[in-house]
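Quiz preparation item.
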């Protein structure tokens, strides 16, 4: 099993969209690969537009909640193979730097996305921004799941995940 942690600051929008899409696509492909999401300063709530975009794509969000990255540094946390940060570099948003608990450190990459919560155009604009962000993250998650994740060496995984982030 290949475990991915998607990080942002508040764990309410982009990281939640990425978690939902990877888990949905992995299940549809009959794979056991799993995504988790967390934030360095979680908001304590999920953005309703993120939940709406995921549900509209058929993702079951019933167990979703805003989580702290601290949950992934304990002995009982799942072993992580990859950590993806999804903060917005263009907005000078500070992306979290994650260090796993015990065991080997996961490969880390950055896939920057603007925060759809800041979209203009009222609720209609936000809905559009969340849907487009969900689609973009879903496309990258499809690319990730197409890799032979279990057999890639760390440098190969690093290079492949970085390449996907540039797509």
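Solution:
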């Amino acid at each position: 099993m290949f475990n991915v942690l998607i990080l942002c600051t508040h764990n309410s929008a982009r990281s939640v969209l990425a978690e939902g899409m990877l888990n949905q696509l992995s299940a549809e492909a009959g794979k056991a690969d799993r995504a988790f999401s967390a934030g360095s300063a979680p908001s304590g709530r999920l953005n309703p537009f993120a939940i709406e975009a995921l549900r509209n794509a058929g993702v079951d969000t019933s167990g979703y909640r805003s989580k702290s990255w601290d949950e992934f540094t304990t002995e009982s946390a799942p072993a992580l193979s990859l950590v993806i940060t999804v903060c917005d570099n263009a907005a000078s948003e500070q992306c979290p730097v994650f260090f796993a608990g015990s065991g080997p450190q996961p490969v880390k990459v950055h896939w920057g996305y603007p925060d759809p919560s800041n979209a203009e155009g009222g609720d209609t604009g936000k809905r559009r921004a969340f849907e487009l962000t969900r689609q973009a993250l879903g496309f990258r998650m499809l690319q990730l799941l197409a890799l032979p994740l279990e057999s890639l060496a760390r440098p190969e995984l690093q290079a492949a995940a970085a390449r996907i982030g540039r797509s």
